[in-house]
């Protein structure tokens, strides 16, 4: 486990779990510059993988809930999440087959102001709730979009004990996100990226 303050674990999943990353912002009189992603650095310091796709979602309303989603093998996705505008309460659940922390959840708040990022490995269900209006979430994923392999977990399943923020608004859920099963009814994932 890294003792680099720029890389810290999210939750208690042990080696190979989600991470909070703080890329260095180089400030000067004009503002700042940051390398949001470096292939070589990510492979060396976080996880040796390649990314297949860059995604961006815009959520107009505060309290918008998206998730909890995942893709199954062979399109299980690791996700590197970065906030271009606004802020999110980011949540993840371990669904890795055989994991000693199977079914455990964790959460972290990240925002555009801090530039912090979250790495969510393949094998985790992922979702977020926006904490500001007009929030833009950018994220790199390690496998292409494969809707035929998509699965989900009910965002407010009591078995997950995710302490969603008070602003979370069920009215913002898509029909799809209203229908996901609870943890007891989801099969574990083989986390191949
Ligand atoms: C994920 C995805 C979606 N789409 C299309 C499919 C729909 O027409 C539209 C919205 O899709 P969806 O409602 O699945 O979008 P989100 O609810 O933001 O889904 C995401 O939400 C949580 C937070 C995640 O972690 C996943 O990355 C992702 O599932 O974009 C694509 O064309 N490509 C894609 O990779």
Describe the fold and architecture.
- There is one protein chain.
- The chain is mostly beta strands and 193 residues long.
- It has a single domain (17-183), classed as Jelly Rolls.
- 6% of the residues lie in helices and 37% in strands.
- The chain contains two helices and 13 strands, in the order ββββαβββββββββα.
- It has helices at residues 39-45, 175-178, and strands spanning 7-9, 19-21, 25-28, 31-34, 53-59, 65-71, 79-85, 87-94, 105-111, 117-120, 124-130, 135-141, 150-152.
- The chain has a six-stranded antiparallel β-sheet, with no helix packed on it. Strands 9-8-11-6-13 form a five-stranded antiparallel β-sheet, with no helix packed on it. Strands 3-4 form a two-stranded antiparallel ribbon.
- β3 (25-28) and β4 form a beta hairpin.
- The longest helix is centred in the N-terminal third of the chain and has 7 residues, at 39-45.
- The protein is globular.
The CATH superfamily bears the name Jelly Rolls
CATH class identity:
Mainly Beta
- Distance from N terminus to C terminus (CA atoms, Å) equals 21 Å
Provide the CATH architecture: Sandwich
C-alpha Rg, in Å? 16 Å
Structural class: mainly beta
Which shape, going by the Cα principal axes? globular
Element string (H = helix, E = strand): EEEEHEEEEEEEEEH
CATH topology: Jelly Rolls
Report strand %: 35-45%
Give start-end ranges of low-pLDDT stretches.
none
Helix count? 2
What ions, cofactors and ligands are bound? dTDP-4-keto-6-deoxyglucose
Mean pLDDT figure = 95
| Fraction of residues in H or I helices | under 10%
Strand order of the largest sheet: 1-2-10-7-12-5
Largest sheet: 6 strands, antiparallel
């Amino acid at each position: 486990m890294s003792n680099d303050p720029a890389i810290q674990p999210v939750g208690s999943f042990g080696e190979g779990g989600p991470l909070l990353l703080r890329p260095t912002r180089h400030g000067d009189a004009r503002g700042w510059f940051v390398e949001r992603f470096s292939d070589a650095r990510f492979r060396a310091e976080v996880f040796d993988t390649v990314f297949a796709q860059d995604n961006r979602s815009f959520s107009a309303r505060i309290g918008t809930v998206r998730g909890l989603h995942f893709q199954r093998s062979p399109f299980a996705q690791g996700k590197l999440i970065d906030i271009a505008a606004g802020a999110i309460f980011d949540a993840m659940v371990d669904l890795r087959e055989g994991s000693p922390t199977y079914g455990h959840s964790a959460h972290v708040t990240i925002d555009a102001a801090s530039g912090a990022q979250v790495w969510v490995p393949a094998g985790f269900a992922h979702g977020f709730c926006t904490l500001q209006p007009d929030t833009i979430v950018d994220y790199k994923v390690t496998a292409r979009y494969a809707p035929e392999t998509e699965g989900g977990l009910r965002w407010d399943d009591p078995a997950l004990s995710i302490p969603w923020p008070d602003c979370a608004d069920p009215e913002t859920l898509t029909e799809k996100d209203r229908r996901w099963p609870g943890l007891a009814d989801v099969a574990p994932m083989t986390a191949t990226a």
